[in-house]
Amino acid sequence: METSDTVAHHAIAESPSSHFEEPISPTETCLENTETESLQPLEPLVKVTVFRLLYTYAILVFGSVKAVMAYRGSNTIPTTIEWISGVVFAIGFYWLGLLENVQPPVASWFFHQDYSRQVVFLPLFITCQF
Questions:
Q1: Which residue spans traverse the membrane (predicted)?
Q2: Diameter of the chain by CA atoms?
């Protein structure tokens, strides 16, 4: 006659989960991959180019000036700024942006060179100077 301890031992030994191997931990698989492959720096999803920085800066400047003038009660200056930024600069940046896809590349320093590292470290550089 089997005791309750013996029955429990057989149930654990014959359970379906005991038929599987131990799972491999994520650190083991990562270590195996790093030994065989060299580590490469990741490419940024979006390039930070001079053209894109200029475009962003123009939007921030015109939007800020328009907001300040509107809060001060001026009616004509915000409308003029909106026309200048919304029509003249938008059309200019649109046509300039078409040059990003021209082959062979034109003005690669302006449209294609990625300055994301410099932009990320610029605030750190400025704060370390003071």
A1: 50-69, 81-99
A2: 100
Helices 90-97 & 50-71 angle (0-180, nearest 10): 170
C-alpha 105, offset from chain centre: 24
Domain ranges of the chain: 4-36, 50-129
pTM listed for this prediction: 0.57
> Would you put residue 52 in left (φ > 0), alpha (ψ -120 to 50) or beta?
alpha
Contacts of 89 (CB under 8 A, 6+ apart): 58, 62
